[in-house]
């Protein structure tokens, strides 16, 4: 059985719906993990993707976060949110806000999590501590599935560049988030739990970045980062036959600032 699984930070599913539908038809993934929906669960365009054959497990509140899994090969055992997920306590908040940043489902022979890891903002910001705590909760949540015989993967926007080669100029990120040793150590903890990066270098070109800022012509100049990742267990990784970053989906007007990452499996 051939299965195509993808992940894409869509940066508002409402604003990008035409792009999303066009891409679903052209790339034809069996499973698509989405992040940064910026819409509530109820407002997600369930019917529009249903017309293309996809069932949806969405998890959103209508604000800046939100995640979803689209599948045309089954959608079972849905879990919304990480067990023991920390909340973010903003400076002006009385209670910690547990944000919709993770959703899991079994899609045919594969189980996946779609995750939108907190940005971290600045190293000395409370959001950075929240990011590290959230990643530890993710590690605890996936340990059992990672060790199992069933193909399993965590896909999404990790807001971490795994190595210095995964940013266009590491000097430009000195003292900033996304490249710090504690963040990268959190990815190391996922590897120790039995997961591995299944879209490693080299790919079909030298710099397979997945994110480019809208500003300062970052995309035409290829000033990007590889922060949209797929971490799979051994059963998943052994089944991978191809992987690529779909840069074409980043081109033109009205696009997300991220490109989809696609992984093909032979199961």
TrEMBL record:
<feature type="binding site">
    <location>
        <position position="258"/>
    </location>
    <ligand>
        <name>Mg(2+)</name>
    </ligand>
</feature>
<dbReference type="InterPro" id="IPR020847">
    <property type="entry name" value="AP_endonuclease_F1_BS"/>
</dbReference>
<keyword id="KW-0479">Metal-binding</keyword>
<dbReference type="Pfam" id="PF03372">
    <property type="entry name" value="Exo_endo_phos"/>
</dbReference>
<feature type="domain" description="Endonuclease/exonuclease/phosphatase">
    <location>
        <begin position="6"/>
        <end position="258"/>
    </location>
</feature>
<dbReference type="InterPro" id="IPR036691">
    <property type="entry name" value="Endo/exonu/phosph_ase_sf"/>
</dbReference>
<feature type="binding site">
    <location>
        <position position="9"/>
    </location>
    <ligand>
        <name>Mg(2+)</name>
    </ligand>
</feature>
<feature type="binding site">
    <location>
        <position position="159"/>
    </location>
    <ligand>
        <name>Mg(2+)</name>
    </ligand>
</feature>
<dbReference type="GO" id="GO:0003677">
    <property type="term" value="F:DNA binding"/>
</dbReference>
<keyword id="KW-0460">Magnesium</keyword>
<feature type="active site" description="Proton donor/acceptor">
    <location>
        <position position="157"/>
    </location>
</feature>
<dbReference type="GO" id="GO:0006281">
    <property type="term" value="P:DNA repair"/>
</dbReference>
<dbReference type="InterPro" id="IPR037493">
    <property type="entry name" value="ExoIII-like"/>
</dbReference>
<dbReference type="InterPro" id="IPR004808">
    <property type="entry name" value="AP_endonuc_1"/>
</dbReference>
<dbReference type="GO" id="GO:0008311">
    <property type="term" value="F:double-stranded DNA 3'-5' DNA exonuclease activity"/>
</dbReference>
<feature type="site" description="Transition state stabilizer">
    <location>
        <position position="159"/>
    </location>
</feature>
<dbReference type="GO" id="GO:0004519">
    <property type="term" value="F:endonuclease activity"/>
</dbReference>
<keyword id="KW-0378">Hydrolase</keyword>
<protein>
    <submittedName>
        <fullName>Exodeoxyribonuclease III</fullName>
    </submittedName>
</protein>
<feature type="site" description="Important for catalytic activity">
    <location>
        <position position="228"/>
    </location>
</feature>
<feature type="binding site">
    <location>
        <position position="157"/>
    </location>
    <ligand>
        <name>Mg(2+)</name>
    </ligand>
</feature>
<dbReference type="GO" id="GO:0046872">
    <property type="term" value="F:metal ion binding"/>
</dbReference>
<feature type="binding site">
    <location>
        <position position="257"/>
    </location>
    <ligand>
        <name>Mg(2+)</name>
    </ligand>
</feature>
<feature type="site" description="Interaction with DNA substrate">
    <location>
        <position position="258"/>
    </location>
</feature>
<feature type="active site">
    <location>
        <position position="116"/>
    </location>
</feature>
<keyword id="KW-0464">Manganese</keyword>
<feature type="active site" description="Proton acceptor">
    <location>
        <position position="258"/>
    </location>
</feature>
<feature type="binding site">
    <location>
        <position position="36"/>
    </location>
    <ligand>
        <name>Mg(2+)</name>
    </ligand>
</feature>
<dbReference type="InterPro" id="IPR005135">
    <property type="entry name" value="Endo/exonuclease/phosphatase"/>
</dbReference>
<comment type="similarity">
    <text>Belongs to the DNA repair enzymes AP/ExoA family.</text>
</comment>
């Amino acid at each position: 059985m051939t299965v195509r699984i993808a992940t894409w930070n869509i940066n508002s599913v409402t604003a990008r719906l035409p792009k999303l539908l066009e891409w679903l038809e052209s790339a034809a993934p069996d499973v698509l993990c989405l992040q940064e929906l910026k819409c509530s669960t109820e407002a997600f365009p369930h019917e529009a993707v249903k017309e293309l054959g996809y069932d949806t497990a969405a998890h959103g509140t209508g604000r800046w976060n939100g995640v979803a899994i689209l599948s045309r090969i089954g959608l079972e055992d849905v879990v919304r949110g990480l067990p023991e997920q920390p909340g973010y306590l903003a400076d002006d908040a009385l209670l910690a806000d547990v944000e919709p940043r993770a959703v899991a489902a079994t899609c045919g022979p594969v189980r996946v999590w779609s995750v939108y890891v907190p940005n971290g903002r600045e190293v000395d910001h409370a959001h950075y501590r929240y990011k590290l705590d959230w990643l530890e909760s993710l590690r605890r949540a996936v340990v059992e599935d990672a060790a199992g015989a069933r193909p399993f993967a965590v896909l999404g926007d990790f807001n971490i560049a795994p190595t210095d080669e995964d940013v266009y100029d590491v000097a430009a990120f000195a003292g900033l988030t996304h490249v710090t040793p504690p963040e990268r150590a959190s990815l190391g903890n996922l590897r120790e739990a039995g997961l591995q990066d299944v879209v490693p270098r080299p790919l079909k070109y030298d710099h397979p970045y997945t994110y480019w800022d809208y500003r300062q012509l970052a995309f035409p100049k290829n000033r990007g980062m590889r922060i949209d990742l797929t971490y799979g267990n051994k059963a998943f990784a052994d089944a991978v036959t191809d992987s690529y970053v779909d840069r074409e989906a980043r081109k033109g007007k009205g696009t997300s600032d991220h490109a989809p990452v696609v992984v093909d499996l032979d199961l």
